[in-house]
Design goal:
- The protein has 96 residues and is an all-alpha fold.
- It has one domain: Orthogonal Bundle (Non-ribosomal Peptide Synthetase Peptidyl Carrier Protein, Chain A).
- α1 runs antiparallel to α2.
- The two termini are 27 Å apart.
Length: 96
């Protein structure tokens, strides 16, 4: 999954949750600037975890309120890239 695909999925979640258009979300938009409260944030994090089948640790989740969607996409991309690297390494090592 590319970073752009991940970003698009996050934007989709954010657009649906906050009823904003994709064009209204900028690189500097934070969940706070989009009007998120603590319950919204929990729901967005839950949606992101379900969509990407990951678990976001509490120490990261607490920071998501004030960071941008792009940073969240970077974080998820790094997880996806790491998992992909591990899986491919295992596959390559298993080939004789």
């Amino acid at each position: 999954m590319t970073k752009q695909e991940i970003t698009n999925k996050i934007y989709e979640i954010v657009c649906n949750k906050f009823m904003v258009g994709k064009k209204e979300i900028t690189l500097d938009s934070t969940f706070y600037s989009l009007g998120a409260d603590s319950l919204d944030l929990v729901e967005v994090i839950d949606d992101i975890e379900k969509k990407f089948k990951i678990n976001i640790p509490d120490n990261i989740a607490l920071k998501i309120y004030t960071i941008t969607s792009t940073i969240v996409a970077d974080y998820i991309t790094s997880i996806v890239d790491y998992v992909d690297m591990i899986v491919n390494k295992k596959i390559n090592n298993a080939i004789f």
